[in-house]
Amino acid sequence: MPKLLTTEQMAEFASSGCLFFEELIDEQTNKEFLDDIGHTSVENVESVQTYFDNIKSTSSIPRIPAGTPLKDSYPKNSPLEKILKNEVVDGAIKSLVGSNPLVDHQALHLTFPTKYFKGANQRQMSQQNHQDSTIDPRSTFDIQVFYFPTEVTKEMGGTRYHPGTHLRVVNEFGIAKYQNIKGQKSIVCKPGTVGIFHNGLWHGAGVNFSEEIRYMFKVRLQPTEKQELLWDPEKKYKPLPNRALYWSDEVKEVTINDILMKSYPWQEADTNRLDKINVVKFWRLLTGHKKMDVDYWLTRIENELY
Amino acid sequence: MAKRQKVLVLYLKFPSLEAEVISWATFDGTGKKLHMTGDSDEPPYPTGLDALLDGWRLFQSSQAIPEYPGQEFRTSYLKHEFFFEKLEEGDF
Ligand SMILES: [Fe+2]
Fold first, then answer.
1. Which ipTM value was assigned to this complex?
2. pTM of the model
3. Where in chain B does DSSP place strands (E)?
4. pLDDT at res. B34
5. Least enclosed by CB within 10 Å: which of A14, A148, A251, A266?
6. How far is CA A47 from the centre of its chain?
7. In whole angstroms, how far apart are CA A149 and each of A133, A247, B74?
8. A238 within domain boundaries
9. Which chain B residue lies closest to A135 (C-alpha atoms)?
10. For residue range B61-80, what is the model confidence (pLDDT) as tens digits?
11. Residues that place a CB less than 5 A from ion ligand 1
C-alpha cells in the first residue's frame, strides 16, 4: 500500500520545494542497483567515457520514450521498479503527481573524482546553479525523484540545492552567476536516500574531491491529472482561521501555516513577501481552497472595491 | 608589472549598500584562486558597505525596474545586484 504524504509534508514541499527520505531503500536493493550498473572499485575505472558506455550497454535500465506511463517503464522486479514501488516513494509520487504519471526522462549522474580531470587535463569545477529544462510559468508542476545508491560524504560534493526557490521563474542557467547563495544545502546522505524536488528548484552538482565516484539516479515525472488533494483523498484538510498579525500573543505550537510561511535566508526583504504570496497561491491549487489565505497576504490585496 | 581585475558580485537584501549579503560570487583574474559554485557557505562580507571599506570599487548596480502590470507577483532572479572590482598589480 502506498504511504501517502501527510499534510505537514505537503506544506513542507509547498514551502521548500523538496522532501527527503533518509536511508529509505534497503541495502539489498542498493546492491542490486549497483550490480546492475556494473559498479566497480575506482581503480578499475579507466576513463569517464568507457565507464559510462559500459553502464549503458550492460545495465537493465531501459530506454524510455518521453511520455511513457511510469507503470509501463521499468521491468518487473528490476531494482528501479522496486525503488519506485517502495511504499514511501510510491506514496509520495501519488501525493504529488497522481496515479498515472508519465516519465519525462531519466538520467544516471556520475560525478568523478579529481584524478580523472587531471588525467584529461581539464579544470575540475562544480556545476553552476540552474533550474532544470527551460523557463516554465505553469501552475502544474513536475517532480524529480533522486535516488542515491551509495553514501555521499561532504567531500564528495553532493547535489547542491536552494530550499524555497522553486516558485521563482527563471530561465535555466540564467542563475549561473550566483556562485553561492545563503542557506545553500548539499545532499550529503547515507546509501538508499531518496529526494524529491519540485521541477523549479534551483540546484547544481557539487564538485567531487573524494577518491570515489558519486552516483545519483534521477527520473522526472509529469502528472496527467490536477494536483489537488491527491495526498488527502478523503478531503479532510480545512484551512486554519485567520490569526492576529503583529499585535499577537506568543504561540509555541507549529501549525501548517507556520510551515507555509517559512522564510529563507537568501530571500530579499521585499521579494520575500511575494515568495510567501506565491506559496499561498500554490497551496490554494494543492488544496482546492481557492480563497484560503495565510496571514492576510492575499486577502489584503484582493480587497479591490473599484 | 601587469594589472589584473578581480570581480566581486554581491546580491543584497534590499537596494542599498548597507544591506546584508544574501548571495555572492568572486572571479579572480590574477589566477591565484579558482572560485566556483558552492565553494563557501558564508559571505565574504556581511554587507555591501563592508566590501567598500575593504577597498572594493563599485562599478555597476542593478536598476529599479517597475513590475510589469499583471506580473507584479511573478518572482524571478535576485534583484539587488552590485558588481565590485579590485585591480591587482603583479607579474602574471
Ligand atoms: Fe539539473
1. 0.97
2. 0.96
3. 2-12, 21-28, 57-61, 81-90
4. 95
5. A251
6. 30
7. 24, 50, 37
8. no
9. B76
10. 999 999 999 999 999 999 99
11. A 132
User: CB–CB of A207 and B73 under 8 A?
Assistant: no
Q: What spacing in Å lies between the alpha carbon of A260 and ligand 1's midpoint?
A: 25
Q: Which helix (H) or strand (E) holds A116?
A: helix A114-119
The answer as to whether A155 is a domain residue is yes
pLDDT (0 to 100) of residue A52? 87
CB contact under 8 A, A207 and B36: yes
Give A160's contacts in chain B (Cβ within 8 Å).
Answer: 37-38
When divided into structural domains, chain A yields a total of 1
Please report, for chain B, the start and end positions of each structural domain, with discontinuous segments joined by +: 2-90
Are A127 and B37 in contact (CB < 8 Å)?
A: yes
Q: In CATH, what number is assigned to the domain containing residue A90?
A: 2.60.120.620
- Please tell me the distance in Å from A80's CA to the nearest CA on chain B: 30
DSSP A135-181: ----SS--EEEEEE-S-B-GGG--EEE-TT-TTS---GGGGTT--EE
Interface of B with A (CB under 8 A): 9, 11-14, 19, 21-26, 34-41, 43, 73-80
Does A150 reside within a domain?
A: yes
Q: Is B16 helix (H, G, I), strand (E, B) or coil?
A: coil
Is any Cβ of chain B less than 8 angstroms from the Cβ of A58? no
3-state secondary structure of A252: coil
Residues A280 and A298: beta-carbon distance below 8 Å: yes
- Which residues are bridge partners to B20 per DSSP? B47
A27, part of any domain: yes
Q: Is A168 within 8 Å of chain B by CB?
A: yes
Residue-number span of the structural domain to which A122 is assigned: 7-222
| Interface contact A174-B77, CB threshold 8 A | yes
Averaged over successive runs of 10 residues, the pLDDT of chain A (306 residues) comes to 97 98 98 93 85 89 97 96 98 98 96 89 94 96 98 95 98 97 98 98 96 96 98 97 94 95 98 98 98 98 96
Handedness of CA A196, A199, A202, A205 (dihedral sign): positive
Tell me the per-residue pLDDT of B15-70, one tens digit each, with 9 for 90 and over: 999 999 999 999 999 999 999 999 999 999 999 999 999 999 999 999 999 999 99
Cβ contacts of B33 on chain A, cutoff 8 Å? none
